[in-house]
Design a protein that fits this description.
By secondary structure, the chain is mainly β. Helix content is 0%, strand content 55%. The protein contains no helices and seven strands. The strands form three sheets. A three-stranded antiparallel sheet has the order 1-5-4, with no helix packed on it. A two-stranded antiparallel sheet has the order 2-3. It has a two-stranded antiparallel ribbon with strand order 6-7. Strand 6 and strand 7 form a beta hairpin. The chain is flat and about 50 Å long.
Length: 66
């Protein structure tokens, strides 16, 4: 699975994320009290699709140059 859960401390409303551990560009999507992290592709497009104010899905369209 490409999206990974990010733990949220609901008592304080904070996320603990080690930025130095991330070795490539990424995006954090927050919706409905949940947070998820996804690495962005080297070549491609990432779309966040919403419906009625909530994230419905994240689409990845990848390609390679040659």
């Amino acid at each position: 699975m490409r999206l990974k859960n990010v733990e949220i401390n609901h008592q304080y409303g904070e996320m603990d994320l080690g930025l130095m551990e991330l070795d490539s560009p990424c995006v954090i999507v927050i919706s409905d009290g949940k947070a998820r992290l996804a690495k962005l592709p080297d070549h491609g497009e990432t779309r966040v699709v919403t419906h009625q104010g909530k994230v419905k899905r994240v689409k990845f369209d990848e390609g390679e140059e040659f």
